[in-house]
Amino acid sequence: MNRISRNISIVLRSERLIAQRHLAVLRRQTGMMAAAGIAAGVGLIMLNVSAFLALSASMSQPTAALIISIANLVVAAMLVSLAGKSNVEQETAPVVEVRDMALEDIEAELRAAANEAKATTDAIKGMARDPLGAIAPGIAGSVAKAVIKNIKS
């Protein structure tokens, strides 16, 4: 029973660690997505400014604004790519393995306890059907020992 409670404790701790890692990855992804959103917003503003300047001014000013806006969009794309590469499964694989081992051990313990209970109930049923047959092997051994002891003396 002590192993079962220990394994249940391991399962609960494992689940808590898995949930914490999920939240940490989600928090990291949210931060990177927010930064990507800001960079994309700045890129969009610069793209609008460059389009305006391209229509109304000489080529050098719009070209500079266009280069800045493209750079902002590249930064946004890199942040989105980094956020998408965060993988919870890789970080939680060892904890999931420990949890699964504890669950398997709990299942084995419960199966063993159920088999033991079944054997006990079968033995009790056998004693109820044939009380003398259940007691006879023990009595026969005792009687045999006593007879051999008396014969030797």
Automatic annotation (TrEMBL):
Keyword line: Membrane, Transmembrane, Transmembrane helix
Domain of life: Bacteria
Residue ranges of the TM segments: 31-57, 63-83
Designated name of the protein: Actinobacterial holin-X, holin superfamily III
Keyword Membrane annotated: yes
Organism of provenance: Shimia thalassica
